Amino acid sequence: MRPSRWRPWRALGLRSRVTVTFGLGALALSATMAALTYFTARQFILHERETAILRQAYVNASLARSSLLRSSSPNITQLLDSLDTLPGSLSVLEQRGFWYATSFSVGENAIPGSLRGLVLHGTPATQHFVLAGSDQMVVGIPLPAVGAAYFEVFSLAELARTLQILALALAGAALVTTAAGAVIGRWASSRALRPLGEVSKAAETIARGSLKTRLGAADDPDLSALASSFNEMADALLERIEREARFTSDVSHELRSPLTTLATSIGVLEAHRDELPPRSRRALHLLSGEMRRFQRMVDDLLEISRVDTGSAELLLDEVEVGELARHAAQAAGAIRVPVEVDPAVAGLRVSLDKRRMERVVANLVANAGQYAGGVTRLAVEAAPGAVRLVVADRGPGVPVAERERIFERFYRGQASGHRGATEGTGLGLSLVAEHVRLHGGTVWVEGDDQENRFVVELPLGGGARDGSRSNGAAGLPDDRPSASVSREAG
Question: Which pLDDT belongs to residue 483?
């Protein structure tokens, strides 16, 4: 029950939670202060009002008593009118069973019976009651010397309006305080989380491959510890990656010498193949195939280690893309597959590393032949600011969940364990991705259950990354320098 109860709160971002917390804190504090202020002011105002009412009532009762004592037959109505009363107050006098009042709206029946009984029996009393929908306060004072009782009814409507205005003012102040608290919370959370935003950006930059990104020193001691820890983590990550890359490179280099010896020995055996018995020839055939596969794997590992260590270089030449695709497809064995060239890019020449792009096409053709029944279509297409190379095969389609992972190293997904799966190294598509990335391009796979389409997109306005050079010239300075583009005449 508890996790589900807090799930909506946890769904909010940290900045939103801090803002809401500040707002709720300001609301609770302002509401508490407003309530205390209101009830304290209400008690004080009521007390002052009741004191003034009692004082005025006793003064008027004393004046009425004096007037009744001086005259044996006074004009009581005139007497009541002559009394000095507060605004909104009315006087009522009872003498020997007769009731007199300054207004027809207030009389014997308007005064609460309980208070009336107490006063008529000689006990002074006060009481709050409602008359005609308005709050009232009545003060009853017995006058036994003249056989009478004096009552004065005071309207509390003005006091109620004053308290209502006070309540509205305090409620408005509480709302303003709440909004101010939320604004302060938003501002404080933004300032507090700004360093985390910088950490997030640095982490994203590192994830994109810029492993030398670091956080600057912070003046705040707490943030300084965070920046120092992050930089130490990045240094450790970079050191580990470099160590693993060096290990892969060293192992690959060390394997080349014995592989060369083995390949030479197998070549000698191949030269005398006809002299071997059938069983030995079959064993030699298997050994030759595994040796070639082993050599391809070592070559692929060496190529990847160059990319990882940053020593991979692009030798740029102006290449006609359609012709490059034709030669690469033929070299990879896709002789019968025609290359479709979009008229919009026919004759277009782009600065590319010919060897690497031929390797891209060869790996895609080999991948199609190994896992998808062969290439069905090769096409060079135009795209906004780019040129695309499309290699289609017979499928089955690559599942959506694997369309990014198949470009990871040694990942073969559902193809693992199926026909021909043991012949591949699991590095072909990852090398495709690395070669395309060095050219500043992208590669992806699309299609359906009947066909896979591997698409390589190379930008025309932004070409190779750092480390490229054209025919031995120095590399261009920025991350994605412009590739030169020309079109053949005719």
Answer: 38
